[in-house]
Amino acid sequence: MPDVRLTRLVLTLALAALLLVPAAASAKLRTETLRAGPYTLGGFRTQFLEESVPRPRTSGYVTRMHALLVDARGRRITIHDGMLHHVYFNNLDVLRTAGQCTSRQPEVFYGTGEENETLDLPAGYGYRLRRHDRWQMSGMLMSHRYSEKQVYVRYRVTVDTARRTAVRPLWVRANGCGRSSSYHVRGGGGPGSVDDRVNHWKVPIGGRIVASGGHLHAGSIDLVMRQPACGNRVLFDNKPSFAPADDLLYHVVPRLHEAGPIQTSWFTSKTGIPVAKGEVLDLHGLYSNQFPRQSVMAITHVYIAPERRAPVGCAPLPADVHQTAPKAGERPSAPYQPIPLYTLDKHHKPVVMDEPPGPSVALADNAVVDLRSFAFTPEKVTIAAGSTLRWHFDDVATHNLTFASGPRAVAGQQLAKGGRTSTRFDTPGRYQLFCYLHPMTMHEQITVTP
């Protein structure tokens, strides 16, 4: 009998140990809620962020991360008050070449914006986090109210302290590795026309693509990664989806930015898509070319698990490929919304102005418009088609040219202290611009005659 009791005790303890295994495994996951700020949102201003921010207080592997804009009580900021246009996080202690670009820089490992992207890596993978790593956050905030409000960027990070396969994040731009991450869709192509920017991306490391997300703007159709060596097949895409037509996003006043997608599909595969170092993949950024849009982006965030002997060739894509689907009510596209010009009434409320007041000043080719004392001078001009207009930024304060509406996109610049830029206008019509740093007071209208 004593042997039987001892056997039962051993079995009971063994069963208890087995039942405790999942709990012990789950205890390796640690989620921290961190925040950066406060920042003062108000005065319809656009502001840029770049600063060191807290990071999780442990080492391990980041498996999930999400950021959004909140108030002091942690409540999400709605579009009525403002928006987080974009934000991205750098690891200052990891200097690597990003994508095919040659300059070494702090590694960008997560980004989001209007598309509300969540970093969510498949089981077994994570982004390596060391105790000494320093994080930096860069972002852009836009205010939709006159009164000031304190806001924070809140980000939740899940870290697994168990051993995982480390991923390498690579930011790949459809417009390649030029000076700017944005480009212009000229417009005027007619219904159904498409602006297709293609980056022939030379993969810098061998391994398996296990996840990817995307950043796109208004007018986007898709962001597609193709494999030319295998019949140009689609490996994955980051397809945009847009809010329902009755969403506040399309009815906010003032509308200083055409509403972009509220989601881009997130791709994952635990098996991963094998790619070889030096292999060329084509990233296509697809936008409607019917209407003009300034400073759009088409950036895919690719996460590769490095592997020296990853299979090469054109084997079938993994069976566990998954892409997030649009939520109920979301749309694959949204109608074009030109941006109005705004001014403030006596109650500091924004109201639409059809055009700047006063007569239009006729200017010759190569004439100059000054940005001085927080105004365009002259702010309403007429030029002949084929003429070039020059802008001189003579204020100490920074200003910019933001395209609001017109038959073709106008290249924008953000300059100060004597900066110069120019644009040739070949297509007749009415063009309206403003400074998004001072949108209620700085406007420009250009009438181009045949």
Key descriptive features of the protein:
450 residues, mainly beta, 6% helix, disordered N terminus
What does this entry look like structurally?
- The protein is mainly beta and 450 residues long.
- It is 6% helix and 50% strand.
- Strands 1, 3, 6, 7, 9 and 10 form a six-stranded mixed beta sheet that branches. A five-stranded antiparallel beta sheet has the order 11-22-14-19-23, with no helix packed on it. Strands 26-29-36-35-32 form a five-stranded mixed beta sheet, with no helix packed on it.
- The model is unreliable at 1-27 (pLDDT under 50).
What's a quick, concise take on this entry?
This protein has one helix at 2-26, and strands spanning 29-41, 46-53, 60-70, 82-97, 104-113, 119-120, 125-129, 135-143, 149-160, 165-166, 168-173, 183-185, 194-202, 207-216, 220-227, 233-237, 240-241, 263-264, 267-275, 280-288, 293-296, 298-306, 322-323, 341-344, 350-353, 361-362, 367-371, 376-377, 380-384, 387-393, 399-400, 402-405, 414-415, 419-425, 429-434, 443-449. With 450 residues, it is mainly β.
Gyration radius, in Å:
26 Å
Largest sheet: 6 strands, mixed
What's the total count of β strands? 36
Task: Give average pLDDT, whole number.
Answer: 90
**Structural classification:** mainly beta
Q: How many DSSP H or I helices?
A: 1
State the shape.
globular
Question: Which percent bin holds the helix content?
Answer: under 10%
Strand percentage, roughly? over 45%
- What is the CA–CA distance across the termini? 107 Å
Low-pLDDT segments, ≥5 res: 1-27
